[in-house]
Amino acid sequence: MMVPHSLHAERDEHATKVVIALGGNALMEAGTPPTAEEQLKVVKKTCENLADISCSGYEMAVVHGNGPQVGRLVLQQEIAAAEQPDQLPAIPFDCCGAMTEGYIGYQIQQSLRDALRNRNRNVPVVTLVTQVVVDKDDPAFEKPTKPIGRFYNAEDAKKMAEEKGWTMKEDSGRGWRRVVPSPKPKRIVELDSVKRLWDTTIVVTAGGGGIPVIENMDGSLTGVAAVIDKDLAAERLAEDMETDILLILTEVENVYINFGKPDQRALSHITVAEAIKYMEEKQFGAGSMEPKVMAAIKFARRFPGKKAIITSLAKAKDALENGAGTVITMA
């Protein structure tokens, strides 16, 4: 029996609060870039897992990535502008980020609302298009590292770099991708709105890491061509909301050392000191696992009695309740 629209599930003031960062596998299958319809099918499956977490009594906000989506949108803009420059001028990069934040958020909020209603839990789900302030002098602008868009072979990557001036880098053995600046998030502009919504609503926010903006001397904001890492944006949100857990979801169940080697080992519970040691040993991919571990370290340092968890979507609830995945704490 469905719960009437006018009734909302009551929120427990003692409920565990968690910010959930969704990895790319939560939005699309590996391989060929999906259509919006194919992506929606994946999102619906993802939201079944999120609904289970909500129904277990957790209060949560959801952050998602947008690298492949914004990369494709930028490419579409450039192709259109090249063919019809007068009729179809390219949309700025920051606006492309806003567009993907909106359409991915729309798919999540629709799918999660339906999944919750099917479980007789009528909690509203809202997408908040979010601006995130970055430092105009952040060194990331001089050294692009954030992969976006499709994968290329080495020959095509070289061609794209020469023709379009893109910075291309090899991505964890999967091929070559365009990389753009990834400045650190300083402040979530719409944080007060998230706080007002938290007690009654599941908020999908800081999508794609949020729209990177520079704060000008007069207090106005200007968008910049960059992508904020969604895991670091999720940490910023978790820190500001003082949540109990930062849950970072990715393709693998655990963080590993010696990944892909014969002596590969899964990590179950590590301290901040151990995580830093592994980072110094270059155990984690710069564009993949490293920012997740960095976000976990930052959260655990800020709240010594709390924890960050890195695991797969399938193990998300098990990680929250039974210790699955990799847990990172201060001690």
Task: Spell out the helices and strands N to C.
Answer: EHEHHEEEHEEEHEEEHEEEEHHEHE
User: How many strands?
Assistant: 17
Number of helices: 9
From the helix content, strand content and strand pairing, which structural class follows? alpha/beta
End-to-end distance: 46 Å
The order of strands across the largest sheet is: 3-9-2-1-12-16-17-15
Mean residue pLDDT: 91
- Residue ranges: pLDDT <50 for 5 or more in a row? 1-9
Task: Give the DSSP E fraction (strand runs of 2 or more residues).
Answer: 15-25%
Could you describe the largest sheet, including whether it forms a barrel? 8 strands, mixed
Task: Determine Rg (CA atoms, Å).
Answer: 20 Å
Backbone shape = globular
Q: Roughly how much helix do the residues carry, as a percent range? A: 25-40%
